[in-house]
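Take a specimen:
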Amino acid sequence: MPLSEVMFCSQHIDIPPELPEVLKQFTKAAIRTQPHDVLQWSAAYFGSLSKGESLPVKERVEMMVANTKTTTGLTLGLLKVLHKQLSLKIIVNKDELEQKWKDLCLPQAQLQSILELVNFGREVEWLKFLALACSTLGETITTALKNACEILTEDPEGGAAQIPFETFTFLYKYLAQVDQDISETQIEEAILLLQTEAKKQDGMIQPSNFLGALCPPLS
C-alpha cells in the first residue's frame, strides 16, 4: 500500500516521554533570547544541550530602549550569555569566541571591531575582552564598569552588583590604558577613594560607589 494511503493513529507513534519537556524548554529559551536567526541559534542550542554545555540563552527578555537603532547587535543580556559560556577559561581561543558569537547571531563586524581595539591575536584574555565589549554598550568608562559589575557580580538580580575591588581596579586601569586620555593622577585619585569604600564592604565595590557625586570622575 502506498505510504500516502497508510492511516496512522496514536497506537502507531511512539513519542519519547522527554520530548514535550525538551520542546517546552526550547520554546521558552527562544522567547527569552529572541535570536535574529532562529535556525542558526537552534542548532547552537541543541548542540550545547547534547554536550552538557552552557546554553546560548538569556536569563530574561530584554526590552529595547527607544533610541536603539537595531536589535541585531550586542546587548548586556547577550554579553552575559557569552560570559557564562566562556568565563571558566582565563584565555579563550579566538575561534571558539567567534563560534559562540555566531551562535548568538551577532554581527561579525562588531566582534572584529572589538578585537581590533587592542589587536588581539589567536588567544584572547577573556576579562579584557569583556571590558572592551562592555565599553561598546555605553559612551563612558563609568557606564562600561557598571555593565561589567552587573555581569560579574554574584549578587542576585536587582542586588547591589558587587564585585571584588581587585577586579574593578584591573578593569578600570585596563580601560583607561586603552582610552589613553585619562591621567595617572586621575586614575589613582579615584582608586584611592574607592579603596576606602571597599574596605567598608569586605573588599567589594559596587556601582553606587563610583556613580555617586563623591567619587571623582573615572573618565
Summary: Residues 65-211 form one domain. The chain has ten helices and four strands. The radius of gyration is 22 Å. Residues 154 and 161 are 7 Å apart (CA to CA).
